[in-house]
Amino acid sequence: MASDTEPLRIYITHLCRVDEEYGRVLEYLDGARRLQYRLVSAPGETPSASREAQRDLWRNQIQAAEVVVALSAQFDADAEAVEFQVRFAKSAGKPVL
Prior knowledge:
Blueprint: E1 8-12, H1 20-31, E2 37-39, H2 51-63, E3 67-69, H3 75-91
Parallel strand pairs: 1-2, 1-3
């Protein structure tokens, strides 16, 4: 858990690229006063084209998080990917917003 000296580790669902909604959440977080956070999601890290490689990437990033922010707008682009990330986060005991 984050302390006064350690930033909160946040994972934002992504589809291995930065989209408009992802950017909007980053703007919100950056504008929040007194919130220290470290982003553990890295949408720019694109694995091979296989779905299993993407899942491995998401698992590793989610494991490092304290909280997961799920972006509902991404469901239109790839519902299966977002659902996987949310299900994995819940199974790993991560709170999902």
